[in-house]
Amino acid sequence: MITKKIALAGAAGRMGTACREALAGADDLELVACIDRVTGASPADPVATQAPWYDSATEALAKTHPDVMVDFTAPASVEANIRTALAAGVDCVVGTTGLSAATLEALAKEIPEGTCLFVAPNFAIGAVLLMQLAARAARWMPDVEIIELHHNQKKDAPSGTAIRTAELIAEAREKAGATALGAPGSESELAGYPGARGARSADIVVHSVRLPGLVAHEEVIFGAPGQTLTLRHDSLDRVSFMPGVLAACRAVTERSGLIVGLENLIEL
Ligand code: NAD
Predict the structure, then answer these.
(1) Which of 36, 70, 131, 245 has its CA 20 to 30 A from that of 18?
(2) Is there an atom of ligand 1 within 6 Å of 118 CB?
(3) What's the CA gap between 158 and 210, in Å, rounded?
């Protein structure tokens, strides 16, 4: 069995900790570097990690020569980490949200031959299925709004999943020539209540809820005369993202270029 070497950026964070736990249970993937500004290697760390800790991707990649760098850091850090990995010819599996389409386009130009930059707005298989079902439903029920709900530590809004869902819905509507009946937008908001009608992503209304106790949830509500359809996915635990992360680590070394969305990397 060929073992792939993995460097993990954001290793001390919530997703990083879940990844360390998942990687520890995967025989064909070896965690060779934990990258974080803070070290998780303390007695309080929930996952015992044998791999060394580094505070920068540059040093970690130079010393450990991984096949893949997984990034679950922060919107402000991810772009620089990806640049470092691509410059070293290391395949990237990116879960960090907040990368704009323009940034991704610029990064795509920096991908060396044979190297892959894979970005997943959501690694949970259920969420990917929800996005596909939403695109399918939008052909027949083009009036739709998205509610995304996350824990109160989330740094970006709307969520990457909501942005991706809106893009897929908009693409499907356009392809099918389906026209929404429409609804009032921000012009209908009462004075003093900005945002009451949500934000717009790909011309679809997205409402962001942030509350302690939540993990990552999305509801897509379709409306048509006399009927509604609600699709909902709930990530109740970060373990929900791990099969997707491990599958991406395995698949990414066989691919090249920019790939967005788990459905474009593995067969679902
Ligand atoms: P978190 O704040 O718990 O962890 C982030 C970690 O990254 C922290 O330990 C921080 O010290 C570290 N970090 C920040 N900048 C760094 C840098 N330059 N170098 C090294 N380490 C750095 O956050 P989280 O809840 O684990 O989420 C991380 C990201 O993953 C967020 O963008 C979140 O939206 C995203 N996310 C994506 C998915 C998905 O399926 N794609 C699922 C959940 C979360």
Answers:
(1) 131
(2) no
(3) 10
